[in-house]
Amino acid sequence: MALVQHWIAGKPTTGRSDRTAPVFDPATGQQTKEVLLADAVDVDAAVAAAKDAFPAWSQTSISKRTKVLFAFRELLNQHAAEVAELITDEHGKVLSDALGEVQRGLEVVEFACGIPSLLKGDYSDNVSSDVDTFSFREPLGVVAGITPFNFPAMVPMWMFPVAIACGNTFVLKPSERDPSASIRIAELWQEAGLPDGVFNVVHGDKLAVDTLLDHEDVAAISFVGSTPIAKYIHERASANGKRVQALGGAKNHAIILPDADIDFAADHLAAAAFGSAGERCMALSAAVAVGSAADAIVAAVSDRARAVKVGAGRADGSEMGPVVTKQAQERILGLIGTGEQQGATIAVDGRDCSVEGYEDGFFVGPTVIDQVSTEMDVYNEEIFGPVLSVVRADTVDEAIALINANPYGNGTAIFTNSGEAARRFQRGVHVGMIGINVPVPVPMAFYSFGGWKASLFGDKHVHGPEGVSFYTRAKVVTARWPHVDHASDASFHFPTAK
Ligand code: NAD
């Protein structure tokens, strides 16, 4: 059985721990690899490698750092298909979707290639007589990223291109469910000329994570994952004096107004609910159908749900792959059952989904649940599967109020032809990322990504300008180069402008 190793100080290593976890191919349901689970000594080794690499990397000129980023961008572009295959084999998503996530990660690398402009400081001439003030930003030191299973390449790339471009060194703790893409990415960094120790990967579970959260040599933690863990990470790392950004789970609502083009809305709603088997933090999992739009959108989206080609991620023509594990499959099937028990209508039932030749795969078919109310489990739980719940509302204001009553605030969308309703929506919802006739409004790399409420703990969003701000801290210098005429103006008064 292939063993997925750590990557520390520029080479693969088995480290000290002999604990492992199985890695599955979700399409076949078979274990394909084992991944090491680090103990504290392994994490210490990764942090020590990053700490050793920091002085030289942080002092490397911005232009030399940028050259490495450009080389990495070229290599990742060349090897995108290979990274996508690793993702499909361990996550299950279809190849085109895996390629899409590599592409969105690449865009963050491209953003980070602009680091010379992004790190420019301010300069104010002669703020007081013969005194100038200027500011610049410095890297923090060793920073760590802890990432979820659902985007094994893109989510780490929300973090490390920016962190490394800013002059930090990085320890990545990827999801133990699909760990291989991060190791291939580490090899590409090395080929691009990144010095050993600047980017390290340590695989593991809670033990590895807790060691990072408590480690005195780790300056900042970026986390993406479920809300209970995000909250825990934020509390524990903050208590240890670290800078933390912890992105959590989501329940993303899409409002469909009666004036929307129903076919357009149904196409996009289906893609956003069932794409990647619903395992996207920006998946639309709740449709809020307003007034007369309801029956029409349920009928149209149900037609699309029945037509989705479910299959292995590598099989030609597959539009939707399996979910990540047997446990995830069982949990999703159980939740659909609660919807039925609690009085919702199962308009399309994906519970009996079987794919020929892949009978042991972790498949769940696209499911549409109508007449959902806000007390039901299917509404309150983040299902993280290909399940769309439809809630009905009478007005756009009622729909906005429903979104605002939800504890999450990651993404949301509206389908409408009314500019007035769209504007009321964009100003009224308490959500971080908003789509207007755009179902999955993931901001481009040069904006920052992040939700509100239980979808983000900490104040800085990832990548874009907030990413640069998160991974650096400011210095403001007030300088005078006096012409010494021996008449000193030193005073015991608090300094005021002269
Ligand atoms: P998860 O919270 O189970 O795991 C995320 C990371 O935390 C993994 O690296 C895991 O090893 C680690 N971890 C798990 N349990 C831990 C514990 N008890 N203590 C310390 N560390 C622990 O999340 P997941 O199932 O891998 O990913 C799916 C979740 O991620 C969903 O809730 C999804 O919404 C969320 N997500 C959010 C965003 C966002 O941008 N807000 C993006 C992607 C995924």
TrEMBL record:
| Alphabetical list of Gene3D superfamilies matching this protein | Aldehyde Dehydrogenase, Chain A, domain 1 (3.40.605.10), Aldehyde Dehydrogenase, Chain A, domain 2 (3.40.309.10)
Q: Does the keyword Metal-binding apply?
A: no
Coiled-coil features, chain-numbered ranges: none
Q: Which UniProt keywords apply?
A: NAD, Oxidoreductase
- NCBIfam families linked to this entry: MMSDH
Which Pfam families does the record match to this protein? Aldedh
Tell me its EC number(s), please. Answer: 1.2.1.27
Organism of provenance: Nocardioides marmoribigeumensis
Domain Aldehyde dehydrogenase intervals: 17-477
EC main group: oxidoreductase
- Protein known as: methylmalonate-semialdehyde dehydrogenase (CoA acylating)
The organism's superkingdom is given as: Bacteria
Q: Name one GO molecular function term.
A: methylmalonate-semialdehyde dehydrogenase (acylating, NAD) activity
Question: Which InterPro entries does this entry report, sorted A to Z?
Answer: Ald_DH/histidinol_DH, Ald_DH_C, Ald_DH_CS_CYS, Ald_DH_N, Aldehyde_DH_dom, MeMal-semiAld_DH
